[in-house]
Amino acid sequence: DLLTILTDVFSYDSYIFHHSFNVTLYTLSIGLKLNLPQKQLEQLGVGAILHDIGKMCISEEILMKPGRLTEAEFAEIKLHSERGFEILRGLHSVSILVAHCAYQHHERLDGSGYPRGIKEEDIHPFAKIIAVADVFDAMTSNRVYRDAMLPHQALEILYAGAGTLFDREVIEAFRRSVAIYPNGMIIELNDERKAIVAEQNQGVTDRPVVRIVEEGGERLESPYEIDLSQ
Are 132 and 166 in contact (CB under 8 A)? Predict the structure, then answer.
């Protein structure tokens, strides 16, 4: 059943499939950092890979629209949570918990989310995890209507919503598990030195080891490394 659904998703819109796959990787990284047991990780992973299944019920014209959505079009987009829930709860091969991952991943702690506008205590912990992974991947992916953000920019937006929109513990676990500045990225330090990210520091992914390649506006003949965690 699941393989058939995933094949249908890929055939309908490859972006939904790739997005769901990325969200699953992020989600399981968070789950591991939160020390979830194996059985819960399995359910969480299935919930993540299927969280956007309801988008198959939304017209491609709306999903791929390059410009701003109208209120009516956005209302149609928001229906994907409920439609995904209906699809998944009709499958005997997945638990009702997996269906609720699709149902609740757009709910927010302060009740500003959809489809039901429920608040923190009523949102399942799995949905809180998927919400963070979903938003991060959406912001760091190129779409027809906007360019991708850099990872650290997306993380700043998540932190801005910590405690009101997103679970703070989940965001912290995400920060510790995902490379915010991937190896090979060119960065500029606050003293205007330019560097290339060379190596990750486990647990402090926003403070990698970098190789300084430019200093005082001059390219260095002998680059050197510094550990930003130090």
Answer: yes
